[in-house]
Design brief:
alpha+beta; four-stranded antiparallel beta sheet; binds flavin-adenine dinucleotide; 408 residues
């Protein structure tokens, strides 16, 4: 991976790996079992700057590149995907739209709080009737005396409970299709004030007064990513000031789609981490588990499985880093981001399932992390655009790129 990574990247990777193995691995199974948000580790990750890796230092970030950010996600997810998505959803989904499309005043007000991990952010696009077809939003924003009133419901929103700053979409012109959707910044207090006070991050008095009418709904009980917070975000005649319109009116949907292009590389890094973690476990196990008087890795069938897993992970890593490399250089990267997300999500599912198989009954129990990894992998094929949607995006780009041919 020398093509993409320099020594600074490798040092960062080693640091995150040490953190993940030292602080995340011992608690991951319990947090998953209890479906509990990792507040203690959120505070430790905030201290290390993981919530603002690629944010310029003037806004409170570490000022590193996008690949550095991906390495943080990959290494956290190698041990626990819930920690990975906590950083990823906050960074690319919740914070980056403010950095990319916000005014200087919005950046100054919100980004330092988010980049330092003082509060957590989220992204509200999905609604009960509009998932993959996200342009069919029912949430509306009506102008009142120059300010806005938002009504609607966003579902499956990462950090809707624990978080305090959100970017959301709402229809501002019903007749303009996707061009009639705008985006807004809304705030609400965390649903875990005691935990936030205990660990010292998660709540910022400076945000008060919060947006009236914004609240978190019921927490989802999920198959995987169980230590990540997923809830409804309710906008009940939410009173949003004119200064919290994000980007130009009518540009919200387009800006959210651009945000998802980058977000998909983040999910790709997360899926890659999961696959690598599952391979590491299976590899270790295959050396100590003995059957028929020998370690199971002596069997060619086991060796072939491990070799295929490692080869596919290497291919996925190239796709992921290449998409990030294109993004860093300001080149078009939407197709490569979708390819990376599609490939690594399906790879994570395949690899974690194979790891369980290679570990037999032990792999199926929560004595080993691969059963959790297998459950955590599934959502990678669904969130931030399902695998089917990635295939649609890739095919559409192929058609656009096709050389015109003379008609017969
Ligand atoms: C844990 C979790 C966290 C999430 N976090 C967030 C978040 O922070 N913010 C946010 O806005 N959303 C979030 N989501 C929502 C997620 O992005 C959506 O679930 C996802 O986009 C799919 O939408 P849907 O669930 O409505 O499925 P649907 O769109 O109803 O899809 C159902 C099935 O139909 C298929 N399908 C739909 N259209 C087509 C088509 N044209 N061609 C072929 N197949 C098609 C889909 O691929 C899928 O298999 C989260 C979801 C989960 C579960």
């Amino acid at each position: 991976m020398r093509l993409y990574l320099d020594e600074k990247h490798e040092r960062l990777r080693a640091g995150v790996r040490a953190f993940a193995e030292g602080e995340v691995a011992p608690v991951a199974a319990r947090l998953d079992e209890e479906s509990r948000f990792p507040w203690d580790n959120v505070a430790k990750m905030a201290e290390r700057g993981y919530f603002g890796v690629n944010v310029p230092t003037e806004y409170g970030g570490l000022g590193l590149d996008y690949l550095s950010y991906l390495l943080v996600i990959e290494e956290l997810s190698r041990v626990d995907a819930s920690h990975g998505i906590t950083v990823s959803a906050h960074s690319t989904l919740g914070m980056s739209p403010i950095l990319s499309f916000g005014t200087e005043a919005q950046r100054r007000r919100y980004v330092p709080l988010l980049a330092t991990g003082t509060v957590l952010g989220g992204f509200g696009l999905t609604e009960p009737g509009s998932g993959s077809d996200s342009a069919r939003s029912r949430t509306v924003a009506v102008r009142e005396n120059g300010d806005w009133k938002l009504s609607g419901s966003k579902i499956f929103i990462t950090h809707a409970g624990v978080g305090e700053v959100f970017v959301v979409t709402a229809v501002t012109d019903r007749d303009a299709g996707p061009r009639g959707i705008s985006s807004f910044i809304v705030t609400k207090p965390t649903t875990d004030p005691e935990e936030a006070a205990r660990v010292g991050v998660g709540h910022a008095e400076e945000l008060a007064p919060y947006t009236p009418g914004v609240r978190a709904g019921k927490k989802e009980d999920k198959m995987g990513w169980r230590a990540s917070d997923t809830r409804e975000l309710v906008l009940d005649d939410a009173e949003v000031s004119r200064g919290d319109l994000l980007g130009d009116e009518g540009e919200g949907f387009i800006n959210f789609m651009k945000t998802l292009d980058a977000g998909r590389i983040g999910i790709s890094a997360l899926a890659l981490g999961l696959a690598q973690g599952a391979l590491d476990e299976a590899l270790r196990f295959s050396g100590v588990r003995r059957q028929f008087d020998r370690p199971i890795r002596d069997f060619q069938g086991v060796q072939f499985a491990l070799a295929d897993m490692a080869t596919e992970i290497e291919a996925g890593r190239h796709l992921t880093y290449h998409a990030a490399w294109l993004k860093e250089r300001g080149e078009p990267y939407g197709k490569q981001a979708s390819m990376a997300k599609l490939y690594t999500s399906e790879l994570a599912m395949r690899t974690t399932t194979r790891a369980v198989q290679l570990m037999g009954g032990y792999g199926y129990t929560n004595e080993y992390p691969v059963e959790r990894m297998m459950r955590d992998a599934k959502i990678c094929e669904i969130g931030e655009g399902t695998s089917e949607i990635q295939r649609m995006v890739i095919a559409r780009t192929l058609f656009r790129e096709e050389e015109p041919r003379p008609t017969i």
